[in-house]
Amino acid sequence: KEMLEKYHDLFTLQWEGVIGDMCVPSQVEWEQLLTNCSAFLFYGMERFMSHVLLNWLVAMNIPKCRLVILLDLVRSQQSYQRITNSDIHKSCLHLALERPTETAMLLSLTGVGSVIATQWYTTLQENAERLEVLFENLLSFGKTTGQTVHILQS
Q: Example GO biological process term (predicted)?
């Protein structure tokens, strides 16, 4: 919320979505958010793909979404318990498709132009720092996604 307030005047007038613990989005809400946006930000616990149905995502066509930013792969004891309970019902192949590289490929196949994603487990603080760098460079300085990713890598 703090970052959204900080960057409110820079391209955020049309932002919509779910913030904090307001509610857990339904699959229909995920679909509406992804299909009606030019950029999508997921900042949450565990794998992004653990929140959406794989069969639903691969059937989507979302070419209007030019950028997906996935700041996920954060683990708490509570999130680990939730994901463990969910994962026991999934095949090995299904779980493999939820990994970061495979998720980026799936999003690309649905029409997303660019995907910025974490590749390994991290902390909320590290993702908050990444989000600050992303917002500052993309929104304040007007840098391209490529330039911004390069900054994140260094």
A: cilium movement involved in cell motility
Whole-structure pTM value: 0.90
For residues 142 and 1, the model is more confident at 142
Query: Long-range contacts of range 26-34, CB-CB < 8 Å, 24 or more positions apart?
Result: 27/52, 27/53, 27/56, 30/56, 31/56, 31/60, 34/60, 34/62, 34/65
pLDDT of residue 61: 93
Phi-psi region of 24 (alpha: psi -120 to 50; beta: other; left: phi over 0): beta
Decide: 52 and 94 in contact? Cβ < 8 Å: no
Dist CA 119 CA 117 (whole Å): 6
Q: By three-state DSSP, how is residue 39 classified?
A: strand
Contact 115, 107 (CB under 8 A): yes
Whether the pLDDT of residue 7 is over 90: the answer is no
